[in-house]
Amino acid sequence: MSIHILAIETSCDDTSAAVLQDTVLLSNIIANQTVHAQYGGVVPELASRAHQQNIIPVVHAALRQAEIDKRQLSAVAFTRGPGLLGSLLVGVSFAKAYAYSLQIPLIEVDHLQGHILSHFIHKDTPAPRFPFLCLCVSGGHTQIVKVNNYFDMQLIGSTIDDAAGEAFDKVAKMLGLSYPGGPLVDKLAKEGNPNAFLFSQANVADYNYSFSGLKTSFLYFLRDRIKETPDFIEKNKHDLCASMQKAIVDSLTKKLIKASRDLKIEEIAIAGGVSANSALQQELIRLSSQYKWNLHIPHLTFSTDNAAMIGIAGYFKYLHNQFCDISSVPYTRG
User: Are residues 158 and 276 in the same domain?
Assistant: First the structure.
C-alpha cells in the first residue's frame, strides 16, 4: 500500500507544501514573498505574517494538484528547523493541527537534511550511493556532510563565520544590486572576466570555511578604487561579479577536493540554494571529470527551499517509525 506524505516548509520566506506518494512527487507548491526586496533582505515579522496568509491556500493547492483527498494522507512532515522562529512557528503549528485533526502521525524534519535527501526524490537520474559527500551551501549555511545513510549524516566541515550565500548577497548589495543578489551576481558574471581582479581567500583548518574576510577585502577594494575612479563599479560591474564569484567557488571546491581525497569518497553531491550557481556547477563538472567523481546536482526546483525535500525525508522517517508528538518545538540554529 502506498504511503502519502503531506510536507510543510516555512523556514524562511517561502511557504511551500508538497505531496509525495512514496518517493514520487505528486505536487510541490511554493508561494514566494516579494515584499522583502524593498528592504534588501528578509524581514522576519513580515515573513511570518505572509506565511499565515499563504499556508492554507498553499496546502489546498498541493492536495488539489496531487489529486488526492486529505483522508488518504499517511502522515504530515514539517520543517522543525533551523530557520526564522516566527516563520517556523507557522508551519509547525499548522502541521500539528492538521495531523491531529486527521489522527495521523507527525514527522519533524531538519531543513538541511531535507536538502541533502532531495536527491532521493524519484527522477530519471540515479540517486547518490552511500557513503557520499554533500556540499550543502545556502544563504545561511555552508557545510560538507558525509552521508552514511538516510539518517546518519556526519558534519565534517562548516563555515566559522558567514555562509557563501550570504557573501554573494552582501557583494550584490555593495554593487548596488537588488535582493536577492546571488542570482544577479551569477547573471552578470557570465559577461565578465573571472581573472580581472584577485581577492584573497581565507586559509582555515581542516574542511572548514570562512567568508567574512573575503567580504571585507572586497569592501575595502571597492572603497579604494572608487576614490580614484568614482564610477569604477559601473565600469567594472561584470568583471567584479565574475572575479568575486570565482573566489567564492574556488574556496568551496578546494575543501571539497581535500575531503574527497582524504576520505577516499568519489560520490559527490551538492545541495542548497547556492547549488544553483552556474559557475559552481560548471567547476564541479570539470572537477568530476578530473577526479573521476560521480557528481549529483539537484534540479533547480529542489535547490531553493521547498516542501518536496521535507516530504522525502519524512517518507524515510515514516518507514522507520520515526514520529514525533505535538510537544515538538522549532529551533533556529542547526
Answer: yes
The DSSP string of 265-310 is --EEEEESGGGG-HHHHHHHHHHHHHHT-EEE---HHHHSS-HHHH
Tell me if 329 is assigned to some domain. Answer: no
* Same domain as 23, residue 108: yes
Q: Are 204 and 191 in contact (CB under 8 A)?
A: no
Claim to verify: residue 158 and residue 109 sit in the same structural domain: no
Asked if residue 284 belongs to a domain, the reply is yes
Integer Cα distance of 26 and 204 in angstroms: 43
Instruction: Measure the CA angle with vertex 256, ends 268 and 78; round to 5°.
Output: 60
Residues 20 and 109 in one domain: yes
Q: Which residues contact 25 (CB under 8 A, 6 or more apart)?
A: 18, 19, 121, 122, 308, 311
pLDDT at 204 over 70: yes
| Parent domain of 65 | 4-117+303-319
Instruction: State how far the Cα of 206 lies from the Cα of 276, in Å rounded to an integer.
Output: 25
Residue 79 CA to residue 198 CA, distance in Å, equals: 40
Q: Are residues 229 and 307 located together in one domain of the fold?
A: no
237's grid cell: 560591474
In 19-110, where does DSSP find H-type helix? 44-66, 85-102
Positive or negative, the CA dihedral 105, 106, 110, 114 is positive
Show the cell assigned to 239.
568583471
Q: Answer whether residue 40 shows pLDDT above 90.
A: no
Could you report the per-residue pLDDT of 93-141, keeping only the tens digit for each? Answer: 999 999 999 999 999 999 999 999 999 999 888 999 999 999 999 988 9
**Chain centroid to CA 145:** 14
**pLDDT tens, residue by residue, 3-34:** 999 999 999 989 999 999 999 999 999 998 77
- Rounded to 5 degrees, what angle do the CA atoms 289, 281, 296 make? 70
Q: How many domains does the chain have?
A: 2
Peptide bond into 82 cis (omega under 30): yes
- Whole-prediction pTM: 0.95
Write phi, then psi, for 33 (nearest 5 degrees). -115, 105
